């Protein structure tokens, strides 16, 4: 069996260091908002090139709390429109609706699966106040163009970096382009904790201070509350796990890029559409997705050969029961992506034999 993603194998590589870090936290007697979190926040900010990093409980909270902070700071208000790709994972959209903002779904570029500047332009109205680009599958959106558009139209930009840790354009990393970047450290993400975790990166001190209060009951000072906040903190133990794994992120990214390159060079089948890369460093390959008509038939064929695949994602947000009646537009590109997309096994620990087996199975598919 070739697993889609072998998390145990990934974490086994760092078992001694992870155990040691765990022991350090246990022995410290301090488990929430202590040295481990402060240290990880500093390292991750440095990694992304930003002034601040604010750890929170998960990626959805990173998105939701950033929009909430902008509301608290009177930069956003209920009913403001936020441009977001129609084909994103539903969390990006949940963060908008949770804040009583209005998601404006935009069809992605069918080659990169990300927002394009043309799509953003067409969707902009007098009510547009923010753009939420999602660097889907690990490829960074055209942030240089998006930021110059945002500046000229006075729009906020919140990057959804949940799948794109370390992806960059001209050496400037995701999370450092927008006014803020939201990260998830869900175990299966490129930088994964051993449980739930997330963070926001930003260069804006006021936003950072507001987020630090919001994640901790709205409290900026013990037992004094500026906001009606939430409890969304990144535990010491997860911060310690993440500090270990951050050291290996770039190596793992290179391994992912090598696997992707091998797939791109090896898979030659006219029935299969391969992903397109704008620039090598721009893609950190959280997922390697192909498109194929009659996807179920290919999935069955690969399953029989012992190759596990997954679909990211089977139902687009506008067709989810949760958003019934909310979106009236037509999204043919998004619907076709959801119908045809398939993710192949890809991880830093997949072996070259496994890669070869996947390639030859795909090349023999008729
Ligand atoms: C995983 C993910 C999230 C949510 O992150 P969690 O940590 O699971 O809450 C948000 N956006 C995208 C694009 C994701 O892939």
Automatic annotation (TrEMBL):
The active site is at residue 189. One of its GO terms (molecular function) is transaminase activity. InterPro entries: DegT/StrS_aminotransferase (IPR000653), PyrdxlP-dep_Trfase (IPR015424), PyrdxlP-dep_Trfase_major (IPR015421), PyrdxlP-dep_Trfase_small (IPR015422). SUPFAM superfamilies: PLP-dependent transferases. The modification N6-(pyridoxal phosphate)lysine is found at residue 189. Keywords: Pyridoxal phosphate. It holds the Pfam family DegT_DnrJ_EryC1. It comes from the Bacteria. The keyword Transferase does not apply. GO terms for biological process: polysaccharide biosynthetic process. Belongs to the DegT/DnrJ/EryC1 family. This is Aminotransferase. It comes from Pseudoalteromonas luteoviolacea CPMOR-1.
